[in-house]
């Protein structure tokens, strides 16, 4: 985990406000991504999304909360949430995401494959994987 001064400030703010420990933080121009400990997403979001809405208003950026898991397949599923119906398998150092139709496949890829690049960036911060493929 590589943190700069802005990341540390955001992590401290998030942890103090939500009471949830942050494992990692990624800052994008229009988005802040927090990876939190297992089974703590609900506590971080708050009832009816109240904590997230309050923090988004204070920071003037969208927030995304991802639940960490020591299991590669479960963590990849958490990153790709809320997409459902994905069949994720591991073939050694390559993870394969099988989608049921082209619509969901497009959602996984994103415009210009931006979503898939972001998924790989987040995933490779925690696990040593050669590639993530969509089939």
Q: Structural class of the helices, strands and pairings?
A: alpha/beta
Which homologous superfamily in CATH is the superfamily of the largest domain?
K homology (KH) domain
How many strands, what sense, and barrel or not for the largest sheet? 3 strands, mixed
N-to-C SSE series? Answer: HEEHHEHEEHHE
Integer average pLDDT? 90
Description:
The chain is an alpha/beta fold. It has 2 domains: 5-67, 2-Layer Sandwich (GMP Synthetase, Chain A, domain 3), CATH 3.30.300.20; 72-134, GMP Synthetase, Chain A, domain 3. Helix content is 41%, strand content 24%. The protein has 6 helices and 6 strands, in the order H-E-E-H-H-E-H-E-E-H-H-E. The strands form 2 sheets. The chain has a 3-stranded mixed beta sheet with strand order 1-2-3, sandwiched between helices. A 3-stranded mixed beta sheet has the order 4-5-6, with helices on one face. A hairpin with a 2-residue loop joins strand 4 (87-91) and strand 5 (94-98). The longest helix is centred in the first third of the chain and has 14 residues, at 5-18. The radius of gyration is 15 Å and the shape is globular. 17% of the residues are buried. The mean pLDDT is 90.
